[in-house]
Design goal:
This protein is 43% helix and 22% strand. It is an alpha+beta fold. The protein has 2 domains: 8-65, Arc Repressor Mutant, subunit A, CATH 1.10.10; 76-252, Trna Endonuclease, Chain: A, domain 1 (3-Layer(aba) Sandwich), CATH 3.40.1350. It has a 7-stranded mixed beta sheet with strand order 3-4-5-6-7-9-8, with helices on both faces.
Length: 256
Amino acid sequence: MHAGLKIADDIDRAVCAVICRNEGMKAREIAAALDLDRKTVNHVLYSSPLLHELCWQDRDFRWHGIVCQARPHDGLQEFAGYYSLVREFVRLDEDAWLARLTEGCTNIGRSLNDTRGLIHSFKDCREQTVKLFNDLLSMMGERCLDWEIAFELRLKRSRHVRIYADVLIITENKVFSLEFKMKDAVDPDEVRQSAKYSPYLEIVFGPGYDIVPALVLTRAAELFEFVRIGREDAVLPVCSGDMLFNVFDEYLHFLI
């Protein structure tokens, strides 16, 4: 086995990445590309629920990726309630965007129960995201319009576990995973929730992207800080909606 691939999630991620970077690979070719034994690769191919959702096998036993691991990420719309370039998103009014989001959520099996509260949170999330791009356009110009954006990304981790990422904003080499809460105070459980999707998003987007999780408290104001994730040494940014641009500057460095 490859010395750098000892953890199951690392192997899942590597197998998925090599499949998505190539057009149709057999198990022996995947094993050779990763310097893994074929038994290990077959175990991943046939037992990983997440990889099964992201890849498919044709009649010739060749594996293909559903999501392209390069821009634009063709196939990502298969897992998102809404997906587009940012330039398209900012042109849509709320009603048009919401219609596309709810239709997309239905298509991916995203439950829309408790419709009143859920729709309210969808609208709040969109409002904060629109404000973010208004800020970014004034600070860094139209470069951000060529980024990609996805709302309500749904992944099946296992039979009983579903992953719902509120908003993904995909730049040239980073994926910002934003968890929105209509609150004004930091909850440690919500900090952990914001961070827990990162390993799975690493599998979706591959080694060419850094995943940046963040928690956005939409009822707070002038908040931007880094908060420890549980008992780990790692931290993640927590901000109010009006300070969300700071999260992007922290990692993209566009402010002088």
